[in-house]
Write a structure and sequence with these properties.
4 domains, four-stranded antiparallel sheet, flat
Length: 294
């Protein structure tokens, strides 16, 4: 390991340049010195090469100049990164905030022209992904077709189906949710779109907490637990309940397309606990999570 020392020998209390006899030298420490105490004995035992005084002063001046240049380059790089992030965020914000079709096209043209240079960092690509999702929910990602059946027609069918399930006692009647106020709507929707609360077009309810003694790892009905809900997927484990539990807890059966949300802290789990079910997991019983059923 090379250790840089600056040694100044002076004949007065001050350190005028003319009194300097040794200014700078390098010491190569012996093997294992990194674990030793760097005391006066270790320092005193090292051998050094000493250049002429004027050359020492020249080296010091050159090093200081180059270090200042390095500091300036580092600051310039930090400023460049900040400026790049600001530019990306500004351009993407202009895209999502664009009102009329002409404004949107203009905002996109500015991005498309420099696309390869704008999205080169992890931060900028993450921002782009978020913008794509935002444009999707705002109805700006694909052209709108006036001939499409409006969302209101679909919602009427969903309401009728929920009413039928309530009458058949397959789901419980839920309290009517308040209307969505104007101040709650974050942006204007395209023609044919509707704002609606989740509970108006889905059935949200909690899972069941089964007793640990009822489980086995061999056979029966597979159960979805908190640990099974990963990031956009279900993690398969060997957790089973007796098959006759399907009769008692038939309303807790997980169906294809159900949305599973594990009610636990993401920073403990390491993922968001959100998953969509797949056919290979059916039939299952759900436990310890909330489920949104389409």
């Amino acid at each position: 390991m090379l250790v840089l020392f600056a040694v100044v020998i002076t004949t007065s209390g001050s350190i005028p340049e003319a009194d300097i006899s040794i200014c700078i030298f390098f010491v190569e420490t012996p093997k294992g010195a990194a674990q030793q105490h760097l005391g006066h004995k270790l320092i005193g035992s090292q051998y050094i090469s000493i250049p002429p005084l004027q050359e020492q002063l020249g080296v010091i001046a050159k090093v200081n100049k180059l270090m200042a240049l390095c500091d300036a380059l580092e600051a310039q790089q930090e400023n460049s990164i900040t400026a790049h992030q600001t530019l990306v965020e500004t351009l993407l914000s202009a895209l999502t905030n664009a009102g009329e079709k002409g404004e949107f096209s203009q905002a996109w043209s500015r991005i498309a022209e420099h696309f390869d240079t704008l999205f080169t960092t992890e931060h900028s690509i993450d921002q782009l992904k978020q913008t794509i999702l935002q444009l999707a929910v705002m109805g700006k990602l694909v052209p709108q077709d006036p001939s499409d059946v409006p969302a209101s027609a679909l919602l009427e069918k969903i309401a009728a189906e929920k009413e039928r399930l309530i009458i058949d006692k397959k789901i419980r009647s839920q309290k009517k949710l308040p209307e969505i106020g104007v101040d709650e709507k974050p942006f204007d929707l395209p023609e044919g779109w509707e704002w609606l609360r989740l509970g108006d077009f889905s059935y949200v309810f909690s899972g069941n907490s089964f007793k640990s003694g009822d489980f086995n790892e061999v056979e029966g009905v597979r159960v979805i637990k908190i640990t099974n809900a990963g990031v956009g997927e279900l993690i398969e484990t060997d957790d089973y309940l007796p098959r006759d539990f399907l009769d008692t807890y038939k309303n807790y059966t997980v169906l294809e397309g159900d949305l599973i949300l594990a009610l636990t802290r993401p920073y403990i789990r390491g993922n968001d606990g959100l998953a969509m079910t797949a056919m290979k997991f059916v039939p299952m019983l759900k436990g310890l999570y909330k489920k949104t059923k389409n």
